[in-house]
Amino acid sequence: MRSISTSESTIPSNTTNSFPDLNFNGTDGIASSVLNRIITARLKNKGVQQAYKKRQQEGIDIRKNIKESKKLSSGVLTKNGVFALDNAEFVAGFRDQIEMQRQEAEGRAKKK
After folding, report:
1. Rounded to whole angstroms, how far apart are CA atoms 82 and 74?
2. Is 90 exposed, middle or buried (0-12, 13-18, 19+ CB in 10 A)?
3. In what helix (H) or strand (E) does residue 93 lie, and over which residues does it extend?
4. DSSP reduced 3-state for 51
5. Is the predicted pLDDT of residue 34 greater than 70, yes or no?
6. According to the model, what pLDDT value does residue 42 have?
7. What's the distance, CA 112 to chain centroid?
8. pLDDT top residue among 39 and 112
9. What's the CA gap between 74 and 15, in Å, rounded?
10. How far apart are CA 79 and CA 75, in angstroms?
């Protein structure tokens, strides 16, 4: 049988730590490091939710602005961030605008 010297059995120094952010030897301790990671992850998720709500609100604003515009011009589209005519919020707003104009025309026709 061959004996293993200590130099052969050492772990290479370039191994990666599977928990790089955990503080094993620091003064804060492992529990503090774990809690910090949980809090950071929750803050990131909250930021994602806020961004989603903002995009959703902007979509509602696009539809409302297109519907309420008197003339549909490239300036109105650009102001609302619509750069392609296949934008779902633009199409919905445009259909709402056409329906509103049709109802107004029918109302004027009934008055005459």
Report:
1. 9
2. buried
3. helix 88-111
4. helix
5. yes
6. 76
7. 51
8. 39
9. 58
10. 6
Distance between CA 73 and CA 21 in Å, rounded?
53
* Maximum C-alpha span of the chain: 111
In whole angstroms, what is the distance from residue 67 CA to residue 64 CA? 5
> How many CA atoms, within 13 angstroms, populate the side-chain half-sphere of residue 35?
5
Contact 51, 43 (CB under 8 A): no
- 35-61 pLDDT per residue, tens: 888 888 877 777 778 877 887 777 778
Tokens representing 16?
A: 């990666």
Alpha-carbon gap, residue 42 to 55, rounded angstroms: 20
Sketch the domain layout of the chain as residue ranges: 30-111
Report the Cα 99 to chain-centroid distance in Å.
32
Instruction: Please give, one letter per residue, the 3-state secondary structure of 9-26.
Output: CCCCCCCCCCCCCCCCCC
In angstroms, what CA-CA distances link 71 with 31, 106, 107? 61, 20, 20
For tokens 């300036």, what's the residue? 75
* Residues with Cβ within 8 Å of residue 5, at least 6 apart in sequence: none
